[in-house]
Specification:
Elements: E1 3-9, H1 13-24, E2 29-33, H2 40-45, H3 47-65, H4 81-106, E3 109-112, E4 115-116, E5 122-125, E6 128-137, E7 141-143, E8 156-157, E9 171-175, H5 179-190, E10 194-198, H6 210-222, E11 226-228, E12 231-239, E13 242-249, E14 255-260, E15 262-265, E16 269-271, H7 278-281, E17 304-306, H8 317-331, E18 345-347, E19 352-357, H9 360-366, E20 370-376, H10 381-385, E21 392-398, E22 404-411, H11 414-426, H12 431-435, H13 445-454
Parallel strand pairs: 1-2, 1-6, 2-3, 6-17, 8-15, 9-10, 9-15, 10-11
Antiparallel strand pairs: 4-5, 5-6, 7-16, 12-13, 13-14, 18-19, 19-22, 20-21, 21-22
The structure holds 1,4-dihydronicotinamide adenine dinucleotide.
Residues 146, 175-181, 183, 198-201, 206, 233, 266-269, 315-316, 345-348 line the site of 1,4-dihydronicotinamide adenine dinucleotide.
């Protein structure tokens, strides 16, 4: 039994960042993680491995679509699936080992095993009970599977199974047109699978700016993905090496069905807090299985905090990281804060889609007077040189004050471009502030500047 200032339960982006920052602030810190490697869902079976596959398949697509246009000739590139999976695993291993190194460097103790909280101030890992002045729950989330569906991770899979399929399926049904469904659907479509996405709502990526979502769907359709929208899935059954999916269209009850080599269930995630003993402790819970916290990440039990996917808010690694940093500051007696109005979201397809702040729909709902500055990548010289002219930057600013309220980008490098807008928003900048900032030529970021110009002074290249 050991005595710590802080024990963080969970070694994902929220937990490991929190543990490292606690240690940096001079607190004696341990992090409990039951997986063989640190990094949680994101590093092991989420953000990182999926990005490796997205990168490999994007490059594959480039060789097929654009290489000859650039005078790069030769036989068509073929896929060695085993090697591609190895590349993905190596990418994961490099990252998870990196966290282990950072734990050693910062003197964070890794308590290996699954933790529970038998009483306030105590964490049980295996047979050992450790004491801590403060405990932080950072146990993340798990796939939320529709009732009546049995996931076997072979044919009927979640995002985890989608990263280890023994061979490339010829056909795939994706249930849910959210971020996971579209990222993994893109991967397998580029690898040659016939991908059909079945979505309950009438549009893809709910919550995304509607104009961007529409453009996104059009681009993905051109890339070969098929969409069945407004469809309520009725049954998903394994039939030998395939699975059969049936649905009904919500508007007219018309029935549809399909049989495919793989069915990816990507209908959202739910907080993972099972086995912690929260009920016995009397921890107050919020909606949808979240742990209820106040604005300082504190639960109703003294000395018990929670962050990341286990609490309310978007289930994003970077939101969890920021909360991890903030709670570490608070536990060290400083001021920790997360600005929830400026949390970017990125879909790592090609083109990428990124957003921050309010959507046009939200502004309308709030009855707010706003203006739109839009600029298409067609007018961006750099995008033209790399055949990535689809998409646009859409900047939303207050009609009176010109203050930036949101930005939505679909196009090359969107996931990186969004951050200049995040910084601008953090500083309360106006669209004109962005428009009058010199942007290097030729870069994709000029499209952001042009959108800002379009909010007032007028875009040059549109
Ligand atoms: P999601 O919430 O993004 O999308 C789920 C989709 O499934 C929604 O469009 C929903 O309408 C649909 N759906 C729900 N029930 C359905 C049904 N019965 N039939 C058909 N469609 C149905 O969830 P997703 O994609 O599973 O991702 C889970 C979480 O992980 C999200 O919070 C997401 O933000 C996060 N994530 C983030 C990534 C990123 O930032 N790039 C990558 C992957 C995941």
């Amino acid at each position: 039994m050991a005595e710590f200032d802080v024990i963080v339960i969970g070694g994902g982006p929220g937990g490991y960042v929190c543990a490292i920052h606690c240690a940096q602030l001079g607190l004696k810190t341990a992090c409990v993680e039951g997986r063989e490697t640190l990094g949680g869902t994101c590093l092991n079976v989420g953000c990182i491995p999926s990005k490796a596959l997205l990168n490999a398949t994007h490059l594959l697509h480039e060789t097929h679509e654009n290489f000859e246009k650039m005078g790069l000739m030769g036989a068509k590139v073929k896929v060695d699936w085993e090697r591609m999976l190895r590349y993905k695993d190596d990418t994961v291993a490099g990252n998870t080992k990196g966290i282990e190194f950072l734990f050693k460097k910062n003197k964070v103790t890794w308590l290996k095993g699954w933790g529970s909280i038998p009483e306030p101030g105590k964490v049980k890992v295996g047979e050992e009970v450790h004491s801590a002045k403060n405990i932080v729950i950072a146990t993340g989330s798990e796939a939320s599977v529709l009732p009546g569906i049995t996931v076997d991770e072979e044919v009927i899979i979640t995002s985890t199974g989608a990263l280890t399929l023994p061979k490339i399926p010829k056909s795939m049904v994706v249930i849910g047109a959210g971020v996971i469904g579209l990222e993994m659907g893109s991967v397998y479509a580029r690898l040659g699978a016939e991908v059909t996405v079945v979505e309950y709502l009438d549009a893809i990526t709910p919550g995304m700016d509607a104009e961007v979502a529409k453009t996104f769907q059009r681009i993905l359709t051109k890339q070969g993905l098929k969409f069945v929208l407004g469809a309520a899935v009725q049954t998903v059954e394994r039939r030998g090496k395939q699975a059969h999916v049936s649905w009904k269209l919500r508007k007219n009850d018309a029935a549809g069905e399909i049989t495919a080599d793989a069915v990816l269930v990507a209908t959202g995630r739910k907080p993972y807090t099972a086995g912690l003993g929260l009920e016995a402790l009397g921890v107050e819970m919020g909606p949808r299985g979240t742990v209820k916290t106040d604005s300082h990440f504190a639960t109703n039990i003294s000395g018990l905090y929670a962050i990341g996917d286990a609490v309310a808010g978007p289930m994003l690694a970077h939101k969890a990281e920021d909360e991890g940093m903030a709670v570490a500051e608070i536990l060290a007696g400083k001021h920790g804060h997360v600005n929830y109005d400026v949390i970017p979201g990125v879909v790592y397809t090609t083109p990428e889609v990124a957003s921050v702040g309010a959507t046009e729909e939200q502004l309308k709902e709030q009855g707010r007077a706003y203006k739109i500055g839009k600029f298409p990548f067609m007018g961006n010289a750099r995008a033209k040189a790399v055949f990535q002219t689809e998409g646009f930057v859409k900047l939303l600013a207050d009609k009176e004050t010109d203050r930036i309220l949101g930005c939505h980008i679909i196009g090359p490098g969107a996931g990186d471009l969004i951050h200049e807008v995040c910084v601008a928003m953090e500083f309360g900048a106006s669209a004109q502030d962005l428009a009058l900032t010199c942007h290097a030529h030729p870069t994709y970021s000029e499209a952001v500047r042009e959108a800002a110009l379009a909010c007032g002074l007028g875009a040059i290249h549109a």
